[in-house]
Specification:
This protein is mostly beta strands. The protein is built from two helices and 25 strands.
């Protein structure tokens, strides 16, 4: 009888604690909204911008291309291919004067800017995360693609690439000291990237970088999309990310790289997968899990290296974090 009463008391305490946590969550949500936060919002915007007047092929001379120190590309719902060549150029697949093949290109402070048309879009905000989704206008009667050429082995000071709902493929490795990549509901596929500082934000789209090297600092945020850093088919030791700050909300983040410096990785209700070179002893791990799972794979390794590559902090709420190691 005493055991039964004791068990009932424990159950009552557990239910009381759970109710308190739920109540605190509701109060925090109300407080956040009262202070300007957004729970959910949907907005349809009309954006008929007259600045998109250029069409046909635009090419810079070899001399002018050499003066370009940065790129700033803002793509909407078109398919984009970025390749390497002799000079800077942009070419739509439709060379006519049709509305859908126009674009806006200009150079300011040695930075080459390109914007493709965005006639209307919707913005969806959920828990202060906003995703912009472009819509095709009634005049858009075909899929339009653009080919952009950048000089071979060009080292840029900065590179900003934003994709709303289109697909962007970068065939050759990109080198830029300060790089910012944003994907709304589209996709970005890069062969390789070398940067000092890198910022990646994925909304509901997909981002893939096969080979990656970040020397100073890297920040990634994933909403409900997918992000893959480093090709898992190759050795993760070929990729290196220093001082990584990664946050995954509902989507998936896959990383195959050596993590050096101080790294903080958080996963809410999504999935985070790590494939690291070396063994568990080559990293200083700290982990915290609320109701999710953090699993470490077999960390045995043939060599006896005791080098510490970096510090890795793992935090998981309701999702899953899997950590595996490359074997020799």
């Amino acid at each position: 009888m005493a055991r039964h009463v004791k068990a009932m008391k424990k159950k009552d305490k557990f239910l009381l604690a759970l109710s308190c946590i739920f109540l605190i969550g509701i109060l925090c949500l109300i407080a956040g909204i009262s202070m300007g936060g957004t729970l959910f919002a949907f907005r349809l915007n009309q954006n008929i911008n007259p600045k998109y007047t250029q069409n046909g092929t635009f090419t810079l001379s070899e001399k002018d291309s050499g003066l370009i120190t940065g790129i700033d590309f803002d793509f909407h719902c078109q398919d984009i291919t970025i390749q390497r060549g002799d000079t800077c150029s942009i070419q739509p697949d439709d060379d006519t004067d049709s509305l859908e093949s126009k674009y806006y290109s200009y150079i300011k402070d040695n930075v080459w800017h390109i914007e493709t048309p965005n006639f209307s879009n919707a913005t969806i905000t959920f828990l202060d995360h906003t995703v912009r989704i472009p819509f095709l206008s009634k005049n858009w009667d075909s899929d339009v693609s653009y080919t952009i050429t950048l000089p071979l082995e060009k080292h840029f000071d900065r590179a900003n690439i934003s994709i709303a709902a289109g697909d962007c493929e970068i065939d050759d490795a990109l080198t830029a000291d300060n790089t910012t990549l944003k994907v709304g509901a589209g996709s970005l596929d890069m062969t390789g990237l070398t940067a000092k500082q890198l910022s990646i934000k994925i909304g509901a789209g997909d981002g893939t970088i096969d080979k990656i090297h970040v020397s100073d600092h890297c920040t990634t945020k994933v909403g409900v999309g997918d992000l893959e850093l480093g090709d898992t088919d190759n050795s993760p030791g070929e990729n290196k990310i220093n001082n990584l700050n990664s946050k995954t909300a509902v989507g998936n983040t896959d990383i195959a790289a050596k993590l050096t410096g101080t790294n903080q990785l958080e996963c809410a209700t999504g999935d985070l997968s790590l494939l690291l070179p070396g063994s568990k002893s080559n990293y200083n791990f700290t982990s915290h899990s609320s109701m999710g799972d953090i699993c470490f794979g077999d960390s045995t390794k043939d060599d006896s290296s005791t080098d510490v590559y970096g510090d890795i902090s793992l935090k998981c709420s309701l999702g899953d974090i899997d950590v595996d190691f490359e074997r020799s």
